[in-house]
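Same chain as my last thread, 260 residues:
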Amino acid sequence: MSVRTLQLVLHYDGRAFSGWQVQPETRTVQGELERVLATLCGDRVVAHGAGRTDAGVHARGQAVGVRVPEKWSAASLRRALNALLPDDVWVAAAHDMRPDFHARFSALSRRYAYYVGTDDDADSPFRRRLEWVLRQPVDRQSLDDVARRVVGNHRFVAFAARSSAIDPHDHRCIVTHAAWSDRPGGLRFVIEANRFLHHMVRFVVGTSVAIATGRRPERDLEALLAADDNGAISPPAPAHALFLDRVTYPRDLYLEDAAP
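reply #2:
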């Protein structure tokens, strides 16, 4: 049977999911997507995600690679999926890709955003479910200094969960962008890299906030970037304020004229 290789771009609210990856007897984004794909295609279709977001983490740009019967165009599969998927998952776009496309291994970079609420209204139930509410004064210069130092090719073993102890790349990640910005009611942190380790963004945010609120000195950052384990890292920031925003691929993997 002839197949078509597609990239699906997903939005999802991670609050009711135990993360991206299929797990037995628990609800996951991959599990819900593969369930609907099997219904539409008459057989199991494996959905390869660009990143394995943790329980509670959201996405506005999770890229997923699927191979489906050729009768499904990108547009028709998107419409059919959105008619059957649960309300907390939505296919924002679908693209025809070259057969050698792989959502994880073809990616050039991933971009995450993290939201912090600092004003009184951050306690609103409409905000606290998507923002980390902070009540301590935050030194903005310290946040900027830490973000600037994180950019580059570093060994991020101290910023990874211990389940990531065995890593074929020696925990090295190339961070091309990391910056805090002010927004109404709080702050936003954006970070982009070629790859991320398990819990890495949350550990970077948690440690940045610990430094910016005076709970640890900024000089600790150099030691953490040189550490061989995560024993001295600050607790990770909560998952519920983290979003996977974008995954970037080489333009020549897209079959349509205009890649996003």
